[in-house]
Amino acid sequence: MKRFVPSLALVERVQNGEAAAVARLISRAETGTDEARTALARIYKLAGRAHVIGITGVPGSGKSTLVGKLAQKMRARAHKIGIVAIDPSSPYSGGAILGDRIRMTELAMDPGIYIRSMATRGAIGGMARAALDAVDILDVAGFDTIIIETVGVGQDEVEIARASHTTVVVSAPGLGDEIQAIKAGILEIADVHVVSKCDRSDANRTLTDLKQMLMIGMMNAPNPDWTVPVIGTSAVNDQGLDDLIEAIAKHRQVAFETETGRARRLSVAQFRLRKTAENLLLERFDRAVAKHGAPLATKLQNRAADPYSAAAELLEASFETEDCHEQNARSKIAR
Amino acid sequence: MKRFVPSLALVERVQNGEAAAVARLISRAETGTDEARTALARIYKLAGRAHVIGITGVPGSGKSTLVGKLAQKMRARAHKIGIVAIDPSSPYSGGAILGDRIRMTELAMDPGIYIRSMATRGAIGGMARAALDAVDILDVAGFDTIIIETVGVGQDEVEIARASHTTVVVSAPGLGDEIQAIKAGILEIADVHVVSKCDRSDANRTLTDLKQMLMIGMMNAPNPDWTVPVIGTSAVNDQGLDDLIEAIAKHRQVAFETETGRARRLSVAQFRLRKTAENLLLERFDRAVAKHGAPLATKLQNRAADPYSAAAELLEASFETEDCHEQNARSKIAR
Q1: Has the ipTM of the complex gone over 0.90?
Q2: From A93, which residue of chain B is nearest by alpha-carbon distance?
Q3: Are the CB atoms for B231 and B193 separated by under 8 Å?
Q4: Do B277 and A314 touch (CB under 8 A)?
Q5: What is the pLDDT of residues A215-256, one digit of tens each?
Q6: A59 and which of A176, A323, B178, B301 could share a cystine (Cβ 3.0–4.6 Å)?
Q7: Which domains does chain B have, with CATH numbers?
Q8: Which chain B residues touch A40 with a CB distance below 8 Å?
């Protein structure tokens, strides 16, 4: 039987690089228990050394394959690599899809690679909060390169990929119209562009399109410290992987040693503060909905109330919205 | 020059079915001004007659084409049809993609069809709130059938499609693995399944798969009032469209006249209450972040603070979290 180990006690084991402690603390970050928060707060203060790489792309772009290949190649250069993969999941069943995990079993045999699949469950902001906690846990456990892989649909998923030092956006040739439309929203966050499946004949078109869009400044704000490269890769013959690893290494310097990098780290901190606060706020709100929501919803269903006044009533019941100063002022007058 | 018309004055014009008033009030619902809320509250109480149909499907499923064809066919049966299309949009530029709008120009020539493309912008919950306000506006303007079209990725998008009387989920043959994985999360919300592109030879496989999954009860909770049909369609020869229209009409009765339908309407009301309240709450939170966020983010960036304590501090500054009773009790003791 497993004995419960306090989260704070796990921190030291994480510092010693114990894989089991890493796994347990990430699980607690996912669940988001109060008990774990003190430990995660300590982890945060200990972290900050690893190079964090966000990799994102639309469904079908082949980013999972790329992440696998990339991790293998980097390992050959003696990096210790952590991978945090955010799975799409049913909003109803809450279950994660095992696809990525299965695909990565080969990698999982290597003790220098740690892979964690995370479900996108729970309250808004919860996924981002937990994923970034997981990155810190791996950081403290001694992983010097950490990849966050997310599917490039959904605002949170995209922003998580950007909450890194270096963001890689993966495109692929020959995707349909609707996919391309979604893609438009993620191109602009790239520090490095990858066009996968370059063994295909239509890949050249995708490469050229991206380069032209970059040249006319359609996608990125001008950056004095960095010119965004476009790299063609292919999983068939490992084409382009070395170029990609080199581009990532070069961008690491920009991330850690320039003013642009500092500004980026500040915006990541803003994002993280926001998501953590949103998550705490909405947890509190959830409890209030469970307590006060039912009668208000019934009134709404019968159109005896409108959504705005019902929502205001719910918030009033949820939070101490009345200003204490006002209330005290009134009680002073009454005295 | 356009004179500002108070939102409340627009309500009467909407009731008269004036397209310009409909457009303006939907825009104000999108912006989410305080001024518009009184009007939208009134609209809500006037609405409730239209049959609301949610149509969703993964990127590439051909749902936009289907919605266009469906609206045309229904118009031949003299329905007045409103379409609210939720566009994917860049989380950074906030711009909507014009694809759907262009595709639908043909329809837009018909005065009995009103099409509105909405961007997914602003605070969390804002899109759902605005989209459902738009449905009510069209309802009050006399549209008897209203289609909400959303892409089936992202929890909010999926739930908006479910915030209807009848939900149609569109699948297509021959999509890649990653797309199929996302699809898994939306199959279970279907009242009617459509398999599009049935002119393709691999469509039979998709039809059979869906029917089998339904038969073994993998996807839906048992429903005494409704058996979920699977309908094959093709835009090439309008195959299956009449069957789909009939299935939707039959489900309308379930939605309006059975206990199952009543329970569903209650869960839609709960969703709406929740999203409206979330939106109001996060607007308030946004203002607090703008006011108090910067110094906390800097402390976080320097790892001088951890995300949890910084978030708690931010929430404290944002809301009157201190319980007034406690505060008053203390001041009584002091007296």
Answers
A1: no
A2: B185
A3: yes
A4: yes
A5: 877 666 778 889 999 999 998 888 999 999 999 999 999 999
A6: B178
A7: 46-257 (3.40.50.300), 277-334 (no CATH)
A8: 306-308
